[in-house]
Amino acid sequence: MQRNGLSSSLDMGAGFSRVIIVDHTGSTNADAVAELSSSSADAWGELSVLATADQRQGRGRLDRQWQAPRNSALCTSFVVRPHAGSGQVLPLESLRWITMLVAVAAVDTLRGFSLDASIKWPNDVLVGHKKICGVLAQLVVEPGGGASVVVGIGMNVNMSESELPVETATSTYVLLGKELDLDAVLRSLAEHFERHYRAFASVYGDAERPDSSGVCLLDKVRSRLSTVGQDVKVHLPDNTVLEGRAIDIDGEGELQVRDARGKMWSFAAGDIVHMRPESYGA
């Protein structure tokens, strides 16, 4: 594979205050969080993008390490500062949905490349039953008091089968048999994210309120979620495992699971260690 990297400058249109492409970094999320924690936070506007094709110290949920060969993966952080926008500031509790907004954008991006992508609750994107993206959000309280979110996404793009980190992972190269232009993938991801974010902001962060498309964010997530309807194992911090059937996702973004006795359980992303559908990795 030739594996070209990202262009040093990409035009994302007027929707983003800053678009920064770096040759390499330890972690785009860590870099963005550091910026928002400093006196330069206001320079990032309402929406910005920080991306690289060479991230060397990436982390996922529960501080799991994530690395990939240079130019094989797209590592992007969206900097979301709702208080810097011209409209009404989003309620703090609505910021929990920003992770899902990025996941929805990733699914739409991959479907644009003819891949049947879906969301695995709470923060992964699959093609078939294998992971192609992971999403990680971090809340930042800026020095001025504003609450912002940095959402990082790592997408396996031009990665050969032998380079995949685990057997349950996949990449666009493995699935399509050809390289994709990283600039095109990033541009598509950013365009989809901005569109979904603006729609969400237009209804003041209410995931159950339809936007101008006539569809609410909750239903957008539901239509892309492959977890619902599957038998799942939910691993909890006390080392217990709950088994049941994933029934739905509610208006708080929590997964509803019915166990073998018919009891309903509700889980937020922070409640679990990990969640495995029966078909995961098959």
Query: Strand fraction band?
Result: 25-35%
| N-to-C CA distance | 27 Å
Strand segment tally: 14
CATH topology of the largest domain: BirA Bifunctional Protein, domain 2
What value does the Rg take, in angstroms? 18 Å
Regions with little confidence, pLDDT below 50 for 5+ residues: none
Question: Would you write up a description of this structure?
Answer:
Helix 2 crosses helix 4. The protein folds into two domains: 18-221, 2-Layer Sandwich (BirA Bifunctional Protein, domain 2); 227-277, SH3 type barrels, CATH 2.30.30. A hairpin with a 5-residue loop joins strand 11 (241-249) and strand 12. Helix content is 20%, strand content 28%. It is an alpha+beta fold and 282 residues long. The radius of gyration is 18 Å and the shape is globular. The chain has a seven-stranded mixed beta sheet with strand order 1-2-5-9-8-7-6, with helices on both faces. Strands 13-12-11-10-14 form a five-stranded antiparallel beta sheet, with no helix packed on it. The protein has helices spanning 28-36, 98-112, 172-176, 182-202, 217-222, and strands at residues 18-22, 47-52, 58-59, 65-66, 73-80, 117-120, 124-127, 130-141, 147-156, 231-235, 241-249, 255-259, 264-267, 274-277. The two termini are 27 Å apart. The longest helix is centred in the last third of the chain and has 21 residues, at 182-202. It contains five helices and 14 strands.
